[in-house]
Amino acid sequence: MLSHPSIKVLGHRTDVAELMRNSDILILPTIEEGSALVTSEARGSGCVLLVSEAAGALCEHMENALVHKVGDLQELTSHINLLDQDRSLLNKLRTASLKTVDQITWSAAGDRLHRIYLEALTKVPLALESAETF
User: Fold this and answer.
1) Type and span of the H or E element at 118
2) How many CB atoms are located within 10 Å of the residue 47 CB?
3) What's phi and psi for 50, nearest 5 deg?
4) How far is it, in rounded angstroms, from Cα 39 to Cα 57?
5) Taking the chain (134 residues) in consecutive chunks of 10 residues, what is each chunk's mean pLDDT?
6) Chain mean position to CA 18
7) Nearest 5 degrees, angle CA 112-CA 114-CA 115?
8) pLDDT at 95
9) Comparing C-alpha atoms, which of 19, 18, 24, 7 is closest to residue 86?
10) CA dihedral defined by 74, 77, 78, 81, rounded to 10 degrees?
11) Sign of CA dihedral 116, 35, 101, 61
12) Which residues, other chains included, contact 51 with Cβ-Cβ below 8 Å and sequence gap of 6+?
């Protein structure tokens, strides 16, 4: 299947970030993944995600990505064709994705974790006070 004229086999590469910056989409039709770091890297590079529900990608269907059911080749094919035929949708998804990409960085995750810790710490004294009254 890799011999199809529309496919260009690139082999092992060390310039993945550059490849992503020069690509329109990243397809990850995984059956089970959990949380694919590559999807966040692709979003940061300007790729629109076409992923399965199992990818664990931080995205929203038809808002900043296209998400298909696991194993649904027909749906994935329709997503590819849709973006090929509707470049305005591709651009809309890319723009929306890039607007929120700052929410999926390690810094954003650290800030969120910090807020959660602060919130938990404000609740701990209440729990201790309640325990001491018994």
Assistant:
1) helix 106-132
2) 24
3) -120, 100
4) 6
5) 86 92 95 85 94 94 97 97 97 96 84 90 66 56
6) 18
7) 65
8) 97
9) 24
10) -160
11) negative
12) 26, 27, 28, 29, 30, 36, 39, 57, 59, 65, 66, 67, 68
Of 51, 21, 25, 16, give the one whose Cα is nearest residue 36.
51
Question: Amino acid letter at 44?
Answer: G
Cα–Cα distance between 67 and 3 in angstroms, integer? 27
**CATH second-level architecture of 16-104?**
3-Layer(aba) Sandwich (3.40)
- C-alpha distance from residue 82 to each of 64, 66, 93 (Å): 14, 10, 12
CB 57 within 8 A of CB 50: no
Amino acid in the structure at residue 125: P
Using one digit for the tens of pLDDT, what is the confidence trace for 16-52?
989 999 999 999 999 988 777 899 999 999 999 999 9
Q: Which residues pair with 116 in a beta bridge?
A: none
Q: What angle do CA 93, 104, 74 make, to 5 degrees?
A: 45
**Which letter does DSSP use for residue 55 in this model?**
G
Separation between Cα atoms, residue 49 and residue 65, nearest integer Å: 5
